[in-house]
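Board notes (copied after class):
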Amino acid sequence: MGKKRPGITARLREAKARKDRAYAATVRDRVIERDGHCRYGKDVASHERSECRGPSEWAHINDWQRFKTRGRPPERRHATQGSMMLCQRHHELYDDGHIEIDYWEPHYCDGHVSYWENGRLMRTNPEWWL
């Protein structure tokens, strides 16, 4: 006798999860194209910041942090303007509150981003100001 087929709730939950993963992958690809390995490492001069270390990770920033967007449709959970690629070290520093990330409306992370590391404003790449 074969394995019992999952119930309707399990099938609907899995279909929703597949849709979320597909949409998230598309957004993440766009963020990787925009930011490269580490947006913080790209924006802040190397002599001003801590050194990049570890693999690249997809970070959800401020109001787009994962715990704040649970239960929302994927189009509202995942957005280029609410996320950036950070190396593992800078992602951990952000999560631990040692790096603060401020962005300007209406573009959020798609536009100019300001960084504070341990309470000090970091000088950023001037091309974002144009």
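Comment from the instructor: The first helix runs from residue 8 to 35. Helices lie at 8-35, 39-43, 66-69, 74-77, 88-95.
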